[in-house]
Every structure is written in structure tokens, then in C-alpha cells.
Amino acid sequence: MSLVIRIDLSSQQINSEEITEEHPLYYYAGRSLTSKIVSEEVPPRSNPLSAENKLIVAAGFLTGTPCPNSGRFSIGAKSPLTNGIKESNVGGRAPALMGRHDIRALILEHISPFWVVLVIQSDGKVIIDSAKDLQGLNNYDLAEKLMEKYGKNIGVLSIGVAGEKQLKAASIASIDLEGYPSRHAGRGGLGAVMGSKKLKAIVVIPPKKTRLTYHDISTFKTESKEWGLSIYKAKRMLSKFGTLVGLTTMNSLNGLPTQNFRHGSYDKAEQISGEALFDYIEENNGKSGIACSPGCVIKCSNLVTNSEGKHLTSSLEYETVALNGSNLLIDSIEDLAEIDHACDDVGLDTIEFGNATGVYMESGKIAWGDAKKVVELIYGIMQDNPDSITVANGAVNTGKIFQVNRVAHVKGQGFPGYDPRSFKAMGVTFLTSPMGADHTAGSAISGRVPYPDREYGKLTESDHKVELSRGLQIFTMIHDSIGQCFFVNPTYQSTPHIVKLLNAKYGWNLTPNELINWSKSWLKMEIDYNTKVGLKSVDNFPSFIEKECLEDNSKRIWDVSREDLEHIWNDLK
Questions:
Q1: Which of 253, 423, 422, 256 is nearest to 327 (CA)?
Q2: CA distances (Å), origin 414, targets 187, 352, 518
Q3: Cis peptide before 315 (omega within 30 of 0)
Q4: Is residue 209 part of a domain?
Q5: Distance CA 483, CA 64 (A)
Q6: Are residue 375 and residue 436 in the same domain, yes or no?
């Protein structure tokens, strides 16, 4: 029987609830569950860093099962960055382990009087340990100490010093299969929420055996194997080159953020491409094609070491490279790996940090392309360097402090690695997702369409892009709620597989259209909460996106119909 475990950090009281069919949370998991709890239990006008906020860690409906790529879970709260509802999902070891404990969610309430570590023991019991000797550690040293104490095979969620200081770009690290704190729930400043509760880490000790049960295990295994094989065959390029496989395409389509979103192409893009990363990894005895979590068949992660054999990061991904590479005019794979390592260590979202640093460079505080100064800026957090603290509180804060108006954000959250003037549907997602500027909410990249029999036009054209983004947002919510990586493809074609697995797991008679309607209701729940907060369901871009064309040969502008945008969520149930 699945459990929801409530932890009152102020009183150290821990209570478990069995999730029976009659329980109001039974038909929620992953993102839908974190958003359900936030929407019903966190006051809309509350301070995200106060005791009123809650931090929820929720396994998906299929997390920890043989379903391919289902080694993820969601972390949710009211965001200190957007001030609205927020979910960020992550892989690594911890999600699958928590799923195998059959723990549907941890709900962390109030504020501890001292720094603590939450531990899920091998028998599934949850206890609270002191973190007195762990305060002040960054994620790499912290991971080592926790594995020494609790075992080398544990899963860990943790915050570095950025989270301890409650900085708004702070992330939550999850150690990967190699034991490095390289997977991050980055978006929305959820590391700051964790820090506000004086929770340094969550440790998940492996169960002696899985506690998951199945209505029809034979059907579940057969469907998982067949679907997994088809995914594996379709994603071979991701395995070789990682998520950087698309960087040169983004560049050729004039959508790669360059020099604080001034240009859509970078003349040194090939030096930071997937091919360049692959060559660097080969030359320095790193690894390509590794999984970020148990059960991953795509294996788009990588392990990057330098010429001396020192581990730098795992993995170096597209968003990190786009926002800290072309956006900052940094053209070295090794420099970018060093920046990624520093962000992972201190605990910063590389997307928000790259945006904020672009604004910082815009102000003239450091030169474009100065990678050494960027790393110094990150570690300056340790000494409370004022500029480091400013940047680590996000792009909007950086613009305000240094009087720079060119800040690429929606709802206070910096853009991911796609210029919306070229990638129109991605722009629609930024404006209309309850999450703010978040590509993972509805990632409209080349070849990804919600319904294969419908016409959506070219990515760089404005026609049909509201429908494209809307469909992807609906299907992405499904993947986020089952605990599956959206690289599987958040489209209608995946839905019959998901329904078959859910029915085999839970004994339901769910249809694809019923699941789609669930997803619409979950999105409406998030939008309604944000409305109570005072946020728009359809937002606006900063004026430079609305008024300026890209400074390259494309001269593209933002030209998606505002009237179409305003109607995107009209039919939500």
C-alpha cells in the first residue's frame, strides 16, 4: 500500500497515511500530486520562504517500476523565484529507491529549529538525524560524507551553500548512479525552500526488496520491455552526443541564445556542440551514453573528466551550455564543464545562473567570455560576495540591482536555451505555462508534435504554435505525473503505452482520452492557484523580445497572435 508521509520539521513529528482508493490523493502522483498539495495547503499569498510553504517530494505513478525511463520524481512548492506554483523533476538514484519503498510522497512542513537530515531507512521507516556537522558543506563533499555514514548505494537529495543561504536560484541536487551530485531539480529556487526549512539532505537507503505491487505483473513487464526497445531504437543519437546533439541545429535556426539573447546564432557554436563534447570525452577517457537513473534506455548522460582525469561533471547538457556558453560568449567545453561543476557543487540552477550572469556581463561588471571570473562568481557565494549573492538570486534581481533592463524572463524565471523569436511554440510555453519560462513544461523542439496527424507548421513560423505548445503541455503533465523522462516523447503516441501500464499496475480501466482529461484538470489546478496568487495565466515577454528583432540574418521577431494566446486554456476541464 502506497504511503504519503508528513513530516512536521518544527515538532519532529512524522505521520504516515495509506493511500487507499478512497483517499483524496489516490489519483495523484508526481507533478499532479505536488501541485495538488500546494494548491490546497499552501496559502496563495504566503511567503515562499516562510513556515507556511511546504516542500513536497512525490514519486510518479510508475516511478521505480520496470517502465522505461521511469526513474524520476517531482519536487514541488511555492516558488521564491516566480511566487507561483512550482514543480521541478529530477533523476538520479533517489527517485527509483523511494518508488520501490512505495512511498508516494514526503510532505515537509514548517521549519526545523536546527539543521537536519531526513532518512528513509531500509525498512521504509522515516527518521530525522542531526546535520550539525554537515552545515556549510557543498554538494560534492556532502555526498561523500553521507555515503560514508549511510552506505555507498544510497540515494541523496541535498542542498549546497546556495540553498542554505536561501538564494532564489538555488537547486536541489540528486546523486547520480556514479555517486556524483550532478542531477538537479533546478528550476524555481526549490533549493531555497529546502534551505528555509533547515533541511540539508534527504537520504534514501535501498529497500531490501521492492514493496511495489502490481495488478497484472506479466502484462506490465511485457509492455515495458516492448516499449523500452522501441524507445532505445529511436534515441540512438541522444545516447552518443547527449542533449547537446541539437545545439548546431538550434544555431542554424537562429534560436540559440547568444550574448544575453541579443543574437540567435553563435559563430563558435561548433566548439561547444555535441560533436565537440563527444570528442573531448573520448580524448580525456570520460564516458558517453550513460543513464542518469535506473531503467533509462535513452542514456543521454555523460561523464566528463579533464586531461588530468579529474571528474568535472556528469552530465554536461544543452541548457547549461546554451545559457553559460553562447549566451556568455564562452566557447570552451572544459570551461563549461568547470562552470557546471561549480553550480552543481554550490547548488545553483545553471539556467537561471546563466541568465543572471548574462545580465551581469551586460552591466559591464565582468567581460563577455571570461569563464574564470564566472567560476569565481559562483564560489564567491561562500564568502558572501555581494555580486555573487545578487546573481544567485536570479536574473530579475540582477537586472534590478545593476539597472539592466535586458532581462530574459517570464514570471521572474529566466529563459531556457531557446530564443522565442525563432522557436515560436517554445515562446508560447514560456508565456502560458503555470511554471513560468520553463522548457520542460512543453518542449517544442524539432520533430516533437502532440498529434502526428495534425499540421503545426515549421518551428520558426507563428501559425499553429499555440496548439502545438498546448498539446505538448498536456502530454508533458502526464509524463511528469507518472515519473517518466519527457525525452520518451510527450505525445499522443506514448499515451496508449502509459494507459496500458497504469491499468496493469493499478487494475484500472483507464482510456487515453480519460488520462488526457485528467491532465487538463491538473493543469487547471495549477493555473487556478496562480490566479489566486495574482499571476497571469497568459503572461507577457520583456519589451526587448516584443520590440526587437534578432540581430542576425534572420531578423526574426515575436509574432504569435495575442488573441490566439489568450484562448489557449479556454477548454480546460
A1: 256
A2: 9, 5, 29
A3: yes
A4: no
A5: 9
A6: no
Place of cell 495565466: 537
Number of domains in the chain: 3
Asked whether residue 214 is domain-assigned, the answer is no
Here the CATH number for the domain that contains residue 518 is: 1.10.599.10
Query: Three-state SS for 57?
Result: strand
| DSSP state for residue 549 in the 8-state scheme | P
- Note the pLDDT of residue 522: 99
Neighbours of 142 (CB within 10 A): 26
CB 138 within 8 A of CB 347: yes
**HSE-up of residue 489 (Cα within 13 Å, Cβ side):** 22
Question: How many Å apart are CA 131 and CA 153, to the nearest integer?
Answer: 20
Answer yes or no: are the C-beta atoms of 492 and 452 closer than 8 Å. yes
CATH code of the domain in which 15 resides: 3.60.9.10
Host H or E run for residue 376: helix 371-379
Query: 391 and 435, same structural domain?
Result: no
- Concatenating the DSSP letter of every residue in 102-157 gives TEEEEEEES--SS-EEEEE-TTS-EEEEE-TTTTT--HHHHHHHHHHHH-TT-EEE
Asked if residue 135 and residue 67 are part of one domain, the reply reads yes
- Is 325 found in the same domain as 191? no
Q: Which of 182, 204, 226 is the last residue of a domain?
A: 204
287: left (phi over 0), alpha (psi -120 to 50) or beta: beta
Write down the pLDDT at residue 236: 87
- Cβ proximity of 556 and 254 under 8 Å: yes
Neighbours of 200 (CB within 10 A): 28
Residue 76 dihedral angles phi and psi, to the nearest 5°: -135, 155
Q: Tens digit of pLDDT for each residue in 316-330?
A: 999 999 999 999 999
- 185 part of a folded domain: yes
C-alpha cell at 126: 522515516
Same domain, yes or no, for 403 and 430? no
Residues 65 and 154 in one domain: yes
Pair (438, 341) in one structural domain: no
- Domain range for 28 is 3-204
Three-state secondary structure along 290-344?
ECCCCCCCCCCEEEEECCCCCEEECCCCHHHHHHHCHHHCCCCHHHHHHHHHHHH
392 with 469, same domain? no
pLDDT (tens digit, 9 = 90+) per residue, 284-328? 999 999 999 999 999 999 999 998 999 999 989 999 999 999 999
Residue 413, domain member (yes or no): no
